[in-house]
């Protein structure tokens, strides 16, 4: 354990614990521009990544807590998702609690009820682990703050991101906004493998209110989970090169975010999306998460861009859905294009209009 990790251990656990109550956080999803794919224990990324924090796609979580009446060695919690008791969600949360217990030793002293819901449809193929884990991490931090009001806001958010990372890597980028870097990078001051940090330089006006319309090509469970995908990077023949490429793309995109060069932005972002999927296709065993309609959409976007000189571009998550990115000043023309040309490729014409957001909010 290094010095920074030690700083996140709650040193004095002798607070008056006899409090009960609840905290509610609304935390956004995020979309990576330079992707994280490949990690070491404990959730240490192989390369730096950067994401837009989203706004309309969020998780709303309430954590109710009460001091346990009887001594008991394990964690005690119930989970409700969209009003229904969900025991199948418990193992993931149990693992999360085990990983963070060292840093928040009061966890076993309480019984919890976790009530959560997403703004996006459950089966939409949009990963809810980033927003879900960051919401829970923030609720836990609110309890820590209640026990120890001395902690600074900087410590609160850093530790929330640190805890969220231990739940799901990319969740550490779902605490603040609008652009978050996670992973040590020599050109990003303050960057860390342990938590996400705000992009520390002035962001060009072109990225203000940037849009992300998510085209739901395939609503449903992915055939291969991110956990499995990350593991397949361990013996991947191109892994070393990929991690170098991603770190170089962080340097390039950092310049672009400062100078506003949208053509360069497009080149980096689309190459990152395809490189991520290329890693999947060249893993052993190989797998493919794109669907025929994913490719149809990508080709339509390229045709439209060639014909109009628009700054529309796409990125992909670990799934078939397409994130269509475009600047605020093109919203009318691009929205018309999406509706007339692209939504026919979505499952039941489902899509979500989102944009760059400012981060989590306590309610
Ligand atoms: O946070 P995880 O373990 O679900 O991994 C997410 C990885 C990608 O979404 C594919 C890329 C990223 O950087 O968000």
Folded structure, characterized:
The chain has two domains: 3-201, Ribosomal Protein S5, domain 2 (2-Layer Sandwich), CATH 3.30.230.10; 209-355, 2-Layer Sandwich (Alpha-Beta Plaits), CATH 3.30.70. Helices cover 35% and strands 23% of the residues. The protein has nine helices and 14 strands. Strands 1, 4, 5, 6, 7, 8, 9 and 14 form an eight-stranded mixed β-sheet that branches. A four-stranded antiparallel β-sheet has the order 11-12-10-13. Helix 3 (129-147) crosses helix 4 and helix 6 (239-259) packs antiparallel against helix 7. The chain is globular. It binds (3R)-3-hydroxy-3-methyl-5-(phosphonooxy)pentanoic acid (PMV).
Outline:
This protein is α+β, with helices and mostly antiparallel strands and 363 residues long.
Secondary-structure map with pairings?
Layout: H1 3-7, E1 21-34, E2 39-40, E3 44-45, E4 49-67, E5 76-81, E6 84-85, H2 90-100, E7 110-118, H3 129-147, H4 153-167, E8 179-182, E9 196-198, E10 211-215, H5 226-231, H6 239-259, H7 262-281, H8 292-308, E11 313-316, E12 322-326, H9 331-342, E13 351-355, E14 361-362
Parallel strand pairs: 5-7
Antiparallel strand pairs: 1-4, 1-14, 2-3, 4-7, 4-8, 5-6, 8-9, 10-12, 10-13, 11-12
Helix pairs in contact: 3-4, 6-7
Bound molecules: (3R)-3-hydroxy-3-methyl-5-(phosphonooxy)pentanoic acid.
Please outline the major beta sheet: 8 strands, mixed
Q: What would you say the CATH architecture of the largest domain is?
A: 2-Layer Sandwich
Q: Quote the beta fraction.
A: 15-25%
Report the uncertain regions: none
Provide the number of structural domains.
2
Q: Return the average pLDDT rounded to an integer.
A: 95
Heterogens: (3R)-3-hydroxy-3-methyl-5-(phosphonooxy)pentanoic acid
The name of the CATH topology of the largest domain is: Ribosomal Protein S5, domain 2
Terminal CA distance: 34 Å
Structural class comes to alpha+beta
- Mind telling me the C-alpha Rg? 20 Å
SSE arrangement, N to C: HEEEEEEHEHHEEEHHHHEEHEE
What is the number of beta strands? 14
Helix content: 25-40%
**Can you count the helices?**
9
Q: Report the CATH C-level class of the largest domain.
A: Alpha Beta
Shape: globular
């Amino acid at each position: 354990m290094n010095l920074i990790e030690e700083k996140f251990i709650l040193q004095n656990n002798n607070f008056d614990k006899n409090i009960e109550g609840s905290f509610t956080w609304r935390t956004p999803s995020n979309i990576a521009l330079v992707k994280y794919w490949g990690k070491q224990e404990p959730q240490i990324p192989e390369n730096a990544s950067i994401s837009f924090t989203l706004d309309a796609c969020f998780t709303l979580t309430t954590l109710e807590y009460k001091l346990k009446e009887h001594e008991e060695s394990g964690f005690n919690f119930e989970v409700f998702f969209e009003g229904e008791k969900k025991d199948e969600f418990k193992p993931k949360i149990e693992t999360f609690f085990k990983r963070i217990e060292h840093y928040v030793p009061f966890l076993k002293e309480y019984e919890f009820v976790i009530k959560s819901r997403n703004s996006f449809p459950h089966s939409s193929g949009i990963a809810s682990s980033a927003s879900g884990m960051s919401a829970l991490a923030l609720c836990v931090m609110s309890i820590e703050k209640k026990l120890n009001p001395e902690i600074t806001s900087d410590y609160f958010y850093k530790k929330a991101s640190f805890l969220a990372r231990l739940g799901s890597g990319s969740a550490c980028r779902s605490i603040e906004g609008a652009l978050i870097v996670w992973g040590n990078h020599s050109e990003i001051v303050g960057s860390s493998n342990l938590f996400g940090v705000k992009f520390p330089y002035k962001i060009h006006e072109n990225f203000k209110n940037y849009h992300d319309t998510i085209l739901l090509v395939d609503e449903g469970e992915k055939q291969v989970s991110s956990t499995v995908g990350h593991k397949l990077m361990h013996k991947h023949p191109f892994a070393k090169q990929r991690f170098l490429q991603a770190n170089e793309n962080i340097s390039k995109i950092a310049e672009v975010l400062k100078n506003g060069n949208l053509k360069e932005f497009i080149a980096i972002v689309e190459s990152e999306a395809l490189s991520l999927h290329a890693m999947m296709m060249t893993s052993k065993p190989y797998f493919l998460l794109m669907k025929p309609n994913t490719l149809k959409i990508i080709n339509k976007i390229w045709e439209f861009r060639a014909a109009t000189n628009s700054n529309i571009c796409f990125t992909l998550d670990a799934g078939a859905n397409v994130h269509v990115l475009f600047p605020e000043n093109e919203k009318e023309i691009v929205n018309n294009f999406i509706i007339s040309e692209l939504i026919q490729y979505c499952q039941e014409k489902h899509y979500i209009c989102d944009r760059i957001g400012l981060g989590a909010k306590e309610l």
